[in-house]
């Protein structure tokens, strides 16, 4: 039920002859990203019970891959690859460092915007055209990046407001959004709002760093950072990921000699 689409044909109402799939969980991006959340919660469950049920993990990976292909979400395929890489490689000592997080955001959210020549390298070109089946301009994203300066400069301090970026982007960059995680926040909330969000993210990661107990949402955080280079993912789901990283580390940080949060535990 979570995957099967309900096909809406626009020609039935509008006479355009177009069609798109409406899924129970929303659009194709919501479907894939929420399945990634399911995967992360399962990995967290494995950590809690201290058992590695390899066959279940393989089945979940296969499910998420199938869903991404079925709903035709190419960025979902990239997200799965990154998430797998982070799960099976040992990068733990870097994950909770806010400096690493913000350097990663800076690299991935500017690499296409600043250096379009990156797309012309043979390996990247092969991935885009042969594996993902996209054209080298990433479905018009490079055209969007060339026009984004005008849009941002008109209201750079406070942005255009929450959920107004779709309208202003369609009027200026001729697209439904700016196809970049950081730029999406700058368009919505301006430099000031984006800076406040960055401060909150920094404080949450510093809180988690005190305990340093790695969990699957740390993998999901960096997965979102990678795909933010081509998608607007620094929204509600991303905020939830940051909050869960901090929450999963709250126990050891808040238990004191006098009990939880300084309140004596009740006697049994």
Give a description of the structure.
The protein has a two-stranded antiparallel ribbon. It has 13 helices and four strands. It has 268 residues and is mainly alpha-helical. It has helices at 28-49, 54-70, 74-88, 92-95, 98-108, 111-114, 122-131, 141-153, 165-172, 181-211, 216-227, 236-247, 250-254; strands at 6-9, 19-22, 255-256, 259-260. Helices cover 61% and strands 4% of the residues. It is globular and about 55 Å long. Mean pLDDT is 74; it is low at 1-18 and 252-268. Strand 3 and strand 4 form a beta hairpin.
Structural class of the secondary structure composition? mainly alpha
Q: Return Rg in Å.
A: 21 Å
Unreliable sequence segments: 1-18, 252-268
Report the mean per-residue pLDDT as an integer: 74
Strand residue percentage: under 5%
Helix coverage percent of residues?
55-70%
Our measurement of the CA-to-CA distance between the termini, rounded to an integer number of angstroms, reads 45 Å
Number of helices in the DSSP assignment: 13
Give the SSE string: EEHHHHHHHHHHHHHEE
Largest sheet, order of strands side by side? 1-2
General form: globular
| Number of DSSP-assigned strands | 4
Instruction: Give the biggest sheet.
Output: 2 strands, antiparallel
Keywords:
61% helix; mainly alpha; disordered C terminus; single chain; globular; 268 residues; two-stranded antiparallel sheet
Show the helix and strand layout.
Elements: E1 6-9, E2 19-22, H1 28-49, H2 54-70, H3 74-88, H4 92-95, H5 98-108, H6 111-114, H7 122-131, H8 141-153, H9 165-172, H10 181-211, H11 216-227, H12 236-247, H13 250-254, E3 255-256, E4 259-260
Antiparallel strand pairs: 1-2, 3-4
């Amino acid at each position: 039920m979570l995957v099967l689409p309900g096909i809406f044909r626009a020609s039935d109402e509008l006479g355009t002859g177009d069609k798109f799939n409406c899924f129970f969980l929303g659009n194709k991006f919501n479907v894939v990203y929420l399945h990634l959340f399911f995967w992360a919660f399962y990995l967290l469950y494995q950590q809690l019970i201290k058992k590695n049920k390899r066959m279940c993990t393989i089945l979940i990976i296969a499910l998420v891959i199938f869903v991404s292909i079925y709903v035709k979400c190419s960025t979902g395929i990239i997200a799965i690859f990154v998430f797998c890489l982070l799960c099976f490689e040992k990068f733990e000592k870097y994950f909770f460092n806010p400096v690493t997080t913000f350097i990663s955001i800076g690299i991935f959210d500017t690499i296409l915007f600043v250096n379009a020549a990156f797309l012309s390298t043979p390996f990247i070109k092969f991935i885009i055209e042969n594996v993902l089946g996209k054209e080298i301009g990433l479905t018009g994203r490079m055209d969007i990046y060339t026009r984004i300066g005008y849009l941002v400069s008109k209201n750079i301090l406070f942005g255009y407001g929450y959920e107004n970026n779709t309208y202003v982007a369609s009027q200026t960059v001729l697209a439904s959004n700016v196809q970049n995680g950081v730029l999406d926040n700058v368009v919505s909330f301006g430099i000031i709002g984006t800076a406040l969000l960055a401060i909150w993210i920094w404080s949450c990661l510093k809180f988690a760093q005190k305990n340093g107990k790695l969990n699957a949402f740390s993998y999901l955080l960096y997965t979102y950072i990678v795909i933010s280079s081509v998608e607007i993912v620094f929204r509600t789901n991303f905020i939830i990921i940051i909050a869960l990283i901090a929450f999963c580390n709250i126990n050891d940080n808040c238990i004191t000699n006098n009990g939880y949060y300084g309140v004596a535990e009740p006697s049994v």
